[in-house]
Amino acid sequence: MTDTPIKDIAGIVQSTRDYHNTGVTKSYEWRVKQLKAVSRMMSENVAEWEKALDADLKQNTFLKTTEVVSTITEVDNAISNLKSWMKPKIQPNLTVMNMPGTAMIHKEPYGTVLIISPFNYPISLLTKPLVGALAAGNCAIVKPSELSENVSATFARLIPRYLDTNAVKVILGAIPESTELLKHHFDYILYTGSPVVGKVVMKAAAEHLTPVTLELGGKSPCIVDKDVNMEVAAKRIAWGKFLNLGQTCVAPDYIFVHKQVKAQLIQKLKENVKTFYGNDPKTSNDYSRIISQRHAERLIKLLEGCESKIAMGGDGDANNKYISPTIVDEPNLESKLMREEIFGPILPIMSYDDLDQVIKFINDRPKPLALYLFSSNGKLSDKLINETSSGAVIVNDVVVHNTVSTLPFGGVGNSGMGAYNGEFTFDTFTHQKTVLLKPTWIDPFARYPPYDSNKIAI
Ligand code: NAD
């Protein structure tokens, strides 16, 4: 499918804005109709979505199912709760000057919003924000990633077939198309991708004073204490790291393990990788592929200089977009591997004996999207929660927190700003407008001049 002509983008944005101004998208009925259409767009085309995921990332059955089902779950949740989410919220009116009067928060759609999504979970990272944007009564222009080209083409084919074509538009393309889009005025932008591009988006948004949510990446640390259920810890870490070949924004990027249990952890990780993907992961149906040859080459370069420290894997075949599950034992902390977000199936493991040193290491670096701790010691989790800053802290698991729709999903500092998931997505795309309703049958005189000491203070 061809990219959207750049010369058409201004007109697409303007016509979408004009449509929002008609007010059609504000009604409960319109919103529910669109949400149901998103659900049908997924459920009636499962084979097509799965084929696209296969072609882009060779995703396994678990990942493919999750991509489709998580969207449907998000829609179901939005439909079930939409009436209560939309309801104006009456607030207590505490000021004497405004009595009598009714204070409330009116939930207003921002207008026309832009959603830019990355390649790694190419369906859900576009549809989950879209569900919230539509539930909140917005029009949306979506720009999926050019790297996951098959999924992006599927969006371009199916969205016009299911959704209100005046309200939801797909822009296909890469940097030139995004750059053109970002020149225009949107009422809100939700961007998911790398911190480098997040800065570009925020600068462009500033020109129009457009509010943004930035869902970014970075290095998410994972700490393994000596007081740990190693069977479960190693299994969950191996699963969360090598799932989608490490191309998961909240994948554990690196591990700090207590020196007493490092050998045991490495041994158990190896065993689990073998159980999950067999002796040769390249032939496993459950082992995905790197999105592009360029990214595979980037990962192979990350391993340069680490050859003597490879404790597992280390094989790369950029032509086939393959990198084996790899463990690097005690890499140099100044190496590229430990400075850049890995976003691939390479797991650096370092040992520690003083948790305060690990906390200092984490606090000296950009704030992570997720921070993981495996420990049976409740005091350690309290310490980590209180002494570090990250988008999330998860104890004794990895990656799964974004499936809890009652929790906001987002980063802090370099890993992002704002959050979404369930009702938080609705709130993200909703302007909370202050409304104060006052009668005129009474008009207390105290606020009007002339003021003298006989007037009551308000
Ligand atoms: P990316 O930043 O390269 O691209 C993401 C999107 O931005 C794509 O649609 C791309 O076309 C567009 N884009 C790229 N360069 C641009 C530019 N100069 N101007 C405007 N738009 C531009 O990210 P990616 O490689 O697709 O994804 C990987 C990154 O995304 C990692 O850093 C990962 O951690 C992060 N990520 C974060 C989350 C999250 O929820 N926080 C989820 C997934 C991925």
From TrEMBL:
One GO molecular-function entry: aldehyde dehydrogenase (NAD+) activity
Domain Aldehyde dehydrogenase residue range list: 13-435
GO annotations of cellular component type: cytoplasm
InterPro entries per record: Ald_DH/histidinol_DH, Ald_DH_C, Ald_DH_CS_GLU, Ald_DH_N, Aldehyde_DH_dom, Aldehyde_DH_NAD(P)
Keywords of the record: NAD, Oxidoreductase
UniProt GO BP: aldehyde metabolic process
Catalytic residues (UniProt): E215, C249
CDD domains: ALDH_F3-13-14_CALDH-like
Ligase listed as a keyword: no
UniProt family annotation: Belongs to the aldehyde dehydrogenase family.
PANTHER family according to UniProt: ALDEHYDE DEHYDROGENASE (PTHR43570), ALDEHYDE DEHYDROGENASE TYPE III, ISOFORM Q (PTHR43570:SF16)
Protein name per Swiss-Prot or TrEMBL: Aldehyde dehydrogenase
Lineage of the species this protein comes from: Eukaryota, Discoba, Heterolobosea, Tetramitia, Eutetramitia
